[in-house]
Amino acid sequence: MASTVAVPNGDNEAVTPLRYVDIGINLSDPVFRGVYHGKKCHEDDLEDVVERAIRVGCTKFMVTGSDLEESQRAIEVAQEYPGHCYATVGVHPCSCLQFDKHAQGPDAYLSELRELAVKESQAGHVVAFGEIGLDYDRLYLCPKEEQLKYFEIQLDLAVELQLPLFLHSRAAAEDFERLLKPRLEKLPKGGLVHSFTGTLEEMQRAVNLGLDVGVNGCSLKTEENLEVVKQIPLERLQIETDGPWCEMRPSHASAVLLKDAPVLPKSVKKEKWVKGAMIKGRNEPVSIPRVALAIAKIKGISVEEVCKVSSANSIRMFGLGQS
């Protein structure tokens, strides 16, 4: 049975006028079910995670698919939280060897990916094709040749399906842009480079291609990162947490921007979990106001403007039940 989560509006609830969209959150990861490295450490607390986020105004989530199986799990989360969660379908560059490992071969794997994307986009659960792209920082997980081959194949599938792109690029900007450029003109909804950590020049080239840029804690680690974020045009900005990863840490350059940030719920070690607590080291969408606040301070604008514009950008590109 599908679950629904109501936005709090009771007399005893603090209602925020701010509304956030988390365009990159891995809610299908087992850690949100209490499972870490195959070991059950605490109760399934996914519902608590979603409710915490909704209480701070984050009411829309894009749950990331990184291979065929993970895409299916992302869709299951979207089905569990209709109206709040939406999924992406695609194969991450570090997972592209999954194509070759399929029992019936790469064509069969691609066919299953296509069928899943078609069925679930028609059902309203899938809103983007991804996470696809290139990652030359982790070639030990998938060689360059396979990454290039399956990025190109998946781009062509996205064009066929007319789904906007949810993209990944690490240390591969030249090849990434080369393969994208001729296909973007065939994708009227465009795409987003998520968890952006590239240089100022790479960001500007992405924007010039018509891409949006996703910012999370990993996009705010260094002074160079902050300067890049400062220069992202507002009309190309979207925000995310990329939980359970990419949390904002005291060692990051962004830390000085968070002195008046909203206080997060208490955090405990996973072995000490109690209902209502966050898990240390497990990032959640409840922390997205901190991302928005850092961006606002970097750009010298209000958090309200960051929320309004970034949310509108996300809905323009991905729909999220409002297109």
UniProtKB/TrEMBL annotation:
| CDD domains in the cross-refs | TatD_DNAse
**Which PROSITE patterns is this protein grouped with?**
TATD_2 (PS01090)
GO CC aspect terms: cytosol
Instruction: For this UniProt record, give its keywords in alphabetical order, as a comma-separated list.
Output: Hydrolase, Metal-binding, Nuclease
Q: Give the source species.
A: Eremomyces bilateralis CBS 781.70
Q: Which domain of life is it from?
A: Eukaryota
State the name under which the record lists this protein.
Answer: Deoxyribonuclease tatD
Pfam families (UniProt xref): TatD_DNase
Q: Which SUPFAM superfamilies match?
A: Metallo-dependent hydrolases
Gene3D superfamilies cross-referenced by the UniProt entry? Metal-dependent hydrolases
Q: Recorded GO terms, molecular function?
A: 3'-5'-DNA exonuclease activity; metal ion binding
Which InterPro entries does the entry link to?
DNase_TatD-rel_CS, Metal_Hydrolase, TatD-like, TatD-type_Hydrolase
Family assignment from sequence similarity? Belongs to the metallo-dependent hydrolases superfamily. TatD-type hydrolase family.
UniProt-annotated binding residues for a divalent metal cation 1: 131, 242
Residues bound to a divalent metal cation 2 are 168, 194
